[in-house]
Amino acid sequence: MPVRIMQPGHLSLTNGLATTSSVTVPRRLGRVWSRLLSYPTHVTGNPSLQCNSDAESFGEHKDDTIDISKLTEVKQKLKLVGINCDDSCIPGRYAHLLCPKCKGGGRSLERSLSVHIIQDGDFAMWRCFRVDCGWAGRAFAGSNKIRKVMSSRQVAEKSLGLEPLGEKLIAYLGERMISEGTLQRNSVMQRLHDQAIAFPYWHNGVLVGCKYRSMERKFRQEKGTEKWLYGLDDINETAEVIIVEGEIDKLSVEEAGFQNCVSVPSGAPPKVSNRELPPREKDTGYQYLWNCKEHLDKVSRIILGTDADTPGHALAEELARRLGKDRCWRVRWPKKDEFSYFKDANEVLKCLGPGALREVIENAELYQLHVSEEALQCTK
């Protein structure tokens, strides 16, 4: 039975008033609907009425206008830490300024400080991309703290001791159905001293972190770096995003034909929190979402492909709470046998092949319907 939902990010004008248009969609997406909803939605009428996420939520859309008072407050806080915003500091864009800490490396006066004020002017983040500096931090409007600054080290392939993947790891990943082409496109490498698989994290073409995985499934993240979504540069211009629970799952989804996929950088929680969502500056466990807010705000549809276990379901719920359940969809992993389901994207890829994985993703369900059906099954 079709379900009538409000399609986020699509406004129309009726008698001079902004109204949210609706669309009737099937309960599950087939191939045709998957293609149709993969295109960006457009705004008609007054361009100032474009949707954007609420200051404390990704999923609640409102007018995409700049709050001048918040913008002024954020710029004042930036000035307190030595960042003087010039005319290039436009909300929603990246500006490159002289770093007040390293002074651009002395005589070179390199404009190595990247400053980004989000579209609504609610908070700003900055980072110096000089290897011997790496100063980074955030400033929030409305926060009790005048400033929130954190130290962050700059990383490079050479300083991390990375080298191209050897034949052993290529074969290991090949057994998991990950091709050499996918590994090369994602710059997957290995660590020199212990041959652990290295998954570099990139942001705007700059290396910002790295995560390691041994063949014994031991994980480690590079210390002193901020957390971002893995594969972030693959969703710069997309209207639809797939979020999975691990780097190999992201590569698996790419093998199925979807490059617009990212992975969370850390593991899933054991259960859903029963507390209200904390303000962004205290939402430490999901800071990677706030770091990527500008990318995620532009997305009209988010497919959650977390693991089919209790922590995976909890992660999906925590992500949906922050991203907005109205624009989230949930992958239902197929049954393995009478008593169990395939756990994740890579297991489906290995056992059923890329075509089956693609079909599972294309048939993702509306998140709220998926959760309601799960609750109903639990009561039977």
From TrEMBL:
InterPro entries: TOPRIM_DnaG/twinkle, TOPRIM_dom, Twinkle-like. SMART domains: TOPRIM. It comes from the Eukaryota. One of its GO terms (molecular function) is single-stranded DNA binding. This is Toprim domain-containing protein. Pfam families: Toprim_4. The lineage of its organism: Eukaryota, Viridiplantae, Streptophyta, Embryophyta, Tracheophyta. Gene3D superfamilies: 3.40.1360.10. Residues 239-328 form the Toprim domain.
